[in-house]
## 1
Amino acid sequence: AQSVTQLDSQVPVFEEAPVELRCNYSSSVSVYLFWYVQYPNQGLQLLLKYLSGSTLVESINGFEAEFNKSQTSFHLRKPSVHISDTAEYFCAVSDNNNNDMRFGAGTRLTVKP
Amino acid sequence: KAGVTQTPRYLIKTRGQQVTLSCSPISGHRSVSWYQQTPGQGLQFLFEYFSETQRNKGNFPGRFSGRQFSNSRSEMNVSTLELGDSALYLCASSLWGQGAYEQYFGPGTRLTVT
């Protein structure tokens, strides 16, 4: 079965600084990769996803993630963060074999003024 | 379209009681998945229902059960509640299931067991 490791449980950064949230996965088959964001007292929302094709995927609010098959990684980046980006971010992996999405433990991003 | 709705939003129960949580998926979605979220264990998959059948199950004891109705609405039940069952229970719906399909999450039901 596939699994996900998010290497940082908390990432504090200052406003307008760049940020990278790290995600590594393990799977024996082809995977689909997702980043979800959870704001306080809310459910998860999809930020971006990789299914196939271009390894660089982008979200509408400036985040991007790159699928790296050789390093089994799917790190999330943003060149300049805002206070409103403060939230918990979850990396997830699934495949068509198990029909079972696995989530990482989450990374709490805190953007400070 | 209306989003995924979960009722109730908050619940306080006593150890030993049972509880039923409800989830209404987005119209047209046939798959409903349930997750338990706790600070210590993160997001853990409970089970997934598709067309009224349990298609996949996580590693939880038999006290956790669920069902799905013909209109795709789903309920999950926890019997003989334990203090460790205190958590945010999230429901997610998707068109055909997990795999490549995006899951849409509800706001969750926060269960507190005292």
Note: Chain B has a mean pLDDT of 93.
## 2
Amino acid sequence: QKEVEQNSGPLSVPEGAIASLNCTYSDRGSQSFFWYRQYSGKSPELIMSIYSNGDKEDGRFTAQLNKASQYVSLLIRDSQPSDSATYLCAVNRKAAGNKLTFGGGTRVLVKP
Amino acid sequence: KAGVTQTPRYLIKTRGQQVTLSCSPISGHRSVSWYQQTPGQGLQFLFEYFSETQRNKGNFPGRFSGRQFSNSRSEMNVSTLELGDSALYLCASSSQTGDTQYFGPGTRLTVL
């Protein structure tokens, strides 16, 4: 079992729709959770960080964390073609310093 | 604030050679983490430096090493390059443990 798992996709969504991405993790000691967006050939760019159970909203993005079920999700509302990218889920156990464990990423395609 | 910078952006080396990559973190950030990204293995943690000390190390052979200077700039070195070392090498900086990591643009290393 991988430490952080994501569906590789591609997740195809029409423009204006909601894209829903999921991520599960195995380490119950994980304390920090991040979503990064990565365009092809570029480096990861932070979208959201979440540290406590519940929802966190930032613009068109909402991150949801459920530590009991060990999953974190990302919703992208009003999806735009510019949202087409690979979305990486990453977790960190604070006791481990700054060592992010990444999922394999979900490729999202937003079709006009 | 200026972002994380990495040099060089591209490198081509041959098997058996060694290479040194450089990373300058965001001003004020004391933690620098290094990651390797390949199509097959995804993003994998190499090591983290904090205040000139290696705080974490991933599961990579001893050919991969690094250091951090008093101004928080970091270098990583790969000796005796192998074809499988071809990858995008990313560094990320953070102000404190468990906090958000911001990635640089990466160094694309090709080993021939």
Note: Residues 16 and 81 of chain B are 5 Å apart (CA to CA).
